[in-house]
Amino acid sequence: MQLSENTRGALFMSANMLAFVVNDAFMKFLFIDISIYQAIFLRGIITIPMLFMIVLYRKQISFAISHRDWKFVWLRVAGEVGAAIFFL
After folding, report:
1. How many Cβ atoms from other residues are within 10 Å of residue 39's Cβ?
2. What CA–CA distance (Å, rounded) separates 82 from 62?
3. What angle do CA 74, 69, 83 make, to 5 degrees?
4. Does a structural domain hold residue 21?
5. Per-residue confidence band for 88, with pLDDT thresholds at 50, 70 and 90
6. Residue 8, H or E segment
7. H/E/C letters for each residue in 44-61?
8. Residue 2 belongs to what domain range?
């Protein structure tokens, strides 16, 4: 059965919402025993290998960022760290 683009998009959105809910539940469960920084570190240790496998599978490991854009990269990193701390 061939799925339409809208159906595939809806399935991907549902799968991502499920992943978000599961991640949030696990993080809340972990906060009972460990600090927020340990939980963020643990989440990163689990997530990085999965993302690396996706990058290898899609053959998109190389990238080029101009020197002009590095300030935006670091601004995004700071925003992500702040969002992780304030959200959790």
Report:
1. 19
2. 27
3. 30
4. yes
5. low
6. helix 5-30
7. HHHHHHHHHHHHHHHCCC
8. 1-33
pLDDT in tens, 12-54: 999 999 999 998 888 888 888 888 888 888 888 988 999 999 9
Give the count of domains, the chain: 1
> Angle at the Cα of 54 (from 1 to 28), degrees rounded to 5?
95
CA distance 38 to 40: 5
> In sequence order, which residues have a C-beta less than 8 Å from that of residue 27 and are 6 or more positions away?
39, 43, 88
Amino acid at 72: F
Q: Average pLDDT over the chain, rounded to whole?
A: 88
Q: Is residue 7 part of a domain?
A: yes
65 within domain boundaries: no
In a domain? residue 46: no
